[in-house]
Amino acid sequence: MAKLLKKKVLIPVLAALFLIVGSSFKSDFFEIAKQIEIFTTLFKELNMNYVDETNPAELMDAAIKNMLDELDPYTKFLNEQDVEAFKINNAGEYSGIGATVRSFEDKLLIIEPYKGYPADKAGLKAGDEIIKIGDINVSDFEDNAGELLRGANNTSITVTFKRQGETKTATITRAGVEVDAVPFYKMINNKTGYIVLAKFNAKASSQTKSALIDLKGKGAEKIVLDLRGNPGGLLSEAINVTNLFVPKGELIVTTKSKVKKFNKEYKTKNKAVDVEIPLVVLINGNSASASEIVSGGLQDLDRAVIMGARSFGKGLVQRPMKLTYGTQLKVTISRYFTPSGRCIQSLDYSNRDKNGNAKKTTVFNEFATRNGRKVQDGGGVLPDIEIDAVKANELTKYLLQNNMVFDFATNYYYKNQLNDPTGFEFNENDFIDFKNFVSKSGFSFETKTEKVLKEVMTIREEVIYNDAIEKDFKTLLLNIDKSKIAALDTHQKEIKNKLVDEIIKRYFYREGLYEYYLGHDDAILAATELLKNEKEYRSILR
Questions:
Q1: What is the pLDDT of residues 73-88, one digit of tens each?
Q2: Catalytic annotation on 420?
Q3: Selected catalytic residue, list 300, 377, 384, 521
């Protein structure tokens, strides 16, 4: 608490409020009561006496959220709107326009319209910048303007948007939107089935089961389960998905908490669909939480070969706690452990550096799978077979975060025709165009080396620091900056993959992208080859 006292005025007492909600006011009851009283008087005096009019709800919301930011990124205060969004995310259905949108400065950006849903039917495209919803200018709306796009089925809304410099309008009739946990599945060849599991909402296990049974009916004798980019979701669904491939009664997850009632063992409860079918699970750095429960559990039980890149590393479990006036606290209650006993949490939020960033796990403990194979805790699930093309790098991350890939794909879509996703090739000239696009955009990012050099330059040890040294520092920084464009060539393959993903979605939606993957994706091709070689597959699991 001492750290919080230094940082924010309202935080300590709010922390006390939430400690009471969390049920742990034992020997520190007096301190909690004291902090609540301080906060009550502070909040009252502030709102009564501050020179300008205050908004008590906004003050409280900001104070609570700032406090929780000190704990971990997953412990969140949910106001009434947040609670509804949380329910929708888990349920997998809502009423709206059927598109992924993102707040971007003073506008909303259409990231991806879903095929056949209202936004798509109204002609909206990825890259369209919504500047007005009905009579409300997005730039004037203080909250997330995306909420204005939701509403009851069969109600209409008119949006004004910009596309390639031209202002347009469209009327969208809202409808029910189903968010499939399994957006795609298909036979890769006559013996291998492919299932994409994108979310762990309430539909995850039932849709995965249906896809698995359907593929087996079409002749599938081997399965590739793709969890890449799956951010997780419901713990119960992770258990049920794992249960499709392992028998009833298997321990999948153990949770450990300071609160006894949250210490639990989760075992499979149902009869499996197939406990023998050869299985490869694909993961990457964006496979998190429930995805890691499934991949880590199947790895520990030697039930599947895990391929791809190290997963995200989220070994923390959250639970929503009801508060007053329809609000909730989504709070981290425990850590989870896979069947071998390992926790794959990668960041230690109780141990931070001087900038307040959680430190990464650097010491890994060794555990054993059921067959005695060595696996490690901390830092996510490490695949049995790593695939370089699936690994992320800092440059590619920055390009994605700064919309370089997205914006280039938007321009590409309006300049080129594409009739078949399976034959698409992003050639060398296309990549040169991308490098020119990045260069002209003024794109910039600060590398770790630059950060350290700038910190050193601010220290200026007078005994040794002089104009010549400063000049050398500045020259080095300039050379690093110039090398960033050259680095595009170094990571050309990974960047090309992201560009292809974004471009194909523009023409053929996500379904077309998965069709393309079947014949071009490095991880899927490698998984298919491994499954063809039963001897090699079995040897990995021994």
A1: 999 998 887 888 888 7
A2: no
A3: 300
